[in-house]
Amino acid sequence: RATMKSLRFLSAEALVSSTAFARRSLDGVAHNLFPLLFKASYLLERGEVIHDLVENWPLVDFNLGKLLGTTADYQEDLSCRTCLLCLESCLTGLRDYVLNRPSPYMKRLKVVDLTGIRDVEVQLCGCKKTMGRWARTQLLSKLCLELLGHPQQPECSSEVSVDVLIDLFVTERNYELVAQALLKKCSCPLKMRCVAFRADNLALQKFFYIIKLTDPSLLRKLEIVHNVRLEMEHLEILFNSIHFPLLMSLTLPARTFNVQRFTASDERLLARVGEQMGAMAQLSELNVSFSLLTGRMQKLLSPLKTPLKKLDVSNCSLNHADMTYLANSFHANHLEALDLSGHNIPDLYPSVFMKLLSHSSPVLRSLTLEDCNFQDTHVHMLILGLSSCHKLQEFKFLGNPLSARALKHLFTFFCELPMLRNVEFPVPRDCYPIGITYPIDDASLCRFDHRRYESVAEELKLILLQANREDVKASTPLFGSYDAAVQETNNELGAYLIKSFKETLEKFTTSLNKMS
User: Where is the signal peptide (predicted)?
Assistant: First the structure.
């Protein structure tokens, strides 16, 4: 559906449509029209005009998310368009803003906020080429170092100082460049201010070094994922040596906590880590998926003084005591997003799960229950639990052994949830060969009757359509939801896994040779 444009916005589009004319006309444009022209240029992908607008930006702040978001003149939100052409033009324009030579009093820009854009799977821009978070980190670091090596740099540093708020994404491949830019940021006119930091495929020593360079006192979100070998003792050292006063969201890599090898000293260590997290007054989002936490939830979460709004404990082998603690804790009444995937909920703790849902239902917006062994006999329980979740926007339940009939029953119920917008549902059990076991291994995941599945999926979407719920998107992403960060760096991560496998084989071969 087309979004209405004001006469002002249509005029702005007409102006920027002619790149040469727009670039010549900028000197005569009123300062308060720059945001309007920027959004029009971004929509039409006029890279050269975007560059010149940023190079001559006359205002105190440049907030990319607000500039591209819903405005009175054009309500469509463009902040999910991470267009390569537009963002590259924007960042090079920022560099040239520093190098431009007008009088110092004309340079009013103090803050650039690049954090408000969202990386999504489907790009609506014409070029179809994206600049993800990793690439934005790379380019900004490169431009900062270019400025430091520019002949005009001493003069620029005295005239211009701009704080650039950014979500950094660092891997082994861009580590050296980013570390150099952060190390020298005090001398650079563009000062990188890291608001969120993601580390993947990075040696632990390098992670500890670069996280200190980011100025952790500003950090609101910290993601340490996949190939960063962080364990509980390293986490304690991190929290002891670095203070994170504003940290709101923390994601830890798989197996950071491993209850299978817990000793008395490990128990004490876990308690200390819990207390350290409790000292983070702003912490409201925690992801500890794929850590074995059996019987340890209370010890980890009870020191927290701020209620959690988002909790991911998927595949953490939680027992009845863990779920009981969670259902009765003060966190339950504040949970807006909850992931309990990988737990056999119907068999292990159905009543406690229902209690947890009832406590979180007034605020719950996102619920993920993948591979939880919900079967046809549990559909009524699911509907009963979800019926009070009137604010639920997203429900994911891939990997559960539910028949087509059960799914139709659920979809009829979904029509009654007023805020629901996204559903990820499993391939019906009756589309797989008889005797398939759950959870289904990766090798068997795609071995189902695709024609039968398409037929059922059409029926499910028809249920939504007949209830006038075209606003609900229903899909079956077999290998999990889209992850922009993983997608952007999958080549590097794949190469790392192959290298690790090769090293393991070489060690194994060496050991065999020694034995023989």
Answer: none
Cis peptide before 58 (omega within 30 of 0): no
Q: Please give the model's pTM, rounded to 2 decimal places.
A: 0.91
Token pair listed for 501: 């496998």
Please, is 265 exposed, middle or buried when counting C-beta atoms within 10 Å of its C-beta (0-12, 13-18, 19+)?
Answer: exposed
Structure tokens given for 472 = 């609900």
- CA 105 – CA 101 distance, rounded (Å): 11
Tokens representing 262 are 């817990």
What DSSP line would sit under 27-62, residue for residue?
Answer: GGS-GGGHHHHHHHHHHHT-HHHHHHHHHT--SSEE
Q: What's the pLDDT tens digit per position in 123-153?
A: 778 888 999 999 999 999 999 999 998 877 6
User: What span, in angstroms and rounded, lies between the C-alpha atoms of 195 and 214?
Assistant: 9
Average pLDDT over residues 377-390: 97
Instruction: Please state which architecture CATH assigns to domain 213-500.
Output: Alpha-Beta Horseshoe (3.80)
How many CA atoms are closer than 13 Å to the CA of 224, on its beta-carbon side? Answer: 23
**Residues facing 194 on adjacent strands:** 166
CA 222 to chain centre: 11
